[in-house]
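User: Here's a protein and a ligand (zinc ion). What would the complex look like?
Assistant: Let me lay out the input and then the predicted complex.
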Amino acid sequence: MALLRIRKFPDPVLKQNAEPVENIDGSLATLLDSMAQTMYAAPGIGLAAPQIGESRRIVVLDTDHENPGKNLLKLINPEIVETSGSVIFEEGCLSVIDYTADVKRAEKVLFRAWTPEQKQIEIEADDLLAIAIQHEIDHLDGKLFIDRISRLKRELYRRKLQKMIKEGKADGHRPSAVRI
Ligand SMILES: [Zn+2]
């Protein structure tokens, strides 16, 4: 297994609508393992394939900080079936450096996906898992959390990032943020 390079905004692969997986095979399982390793090393609680440059509908998620690996989810073609309520949460992202923002999402979601063992699963999620799965599915649809904030805030971030890149400071992370 290898650690994969995480793509950062404004990499164009993050804007693409990812392709559904048609074959669940060994190479896909290997890719999911490498994605999980990359997510833990980052560290983050979720990683979608476009974030490592693969425009395919696969995601790894682990919101259980206390027992890393125990509740690891490897999801293929995940989709949200039902949502309810709404909640605002301060999100960060492994692909958006040095920035967090309050994002409004559904509070509870029912989602469906395939596993590397070719089983279809359905999960009722709330709290952090509900937020994380919505954030990851956004990645598969070519969307970042900064696409869900106001244009003004997004523009201010864009300028801040350009300045950081110019000054060679664009490699830092805010360790306090929950990065999905
Ligand atoms: Zn993200």
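Summary: Helices lie at 26-41, 127-140, 151-166.
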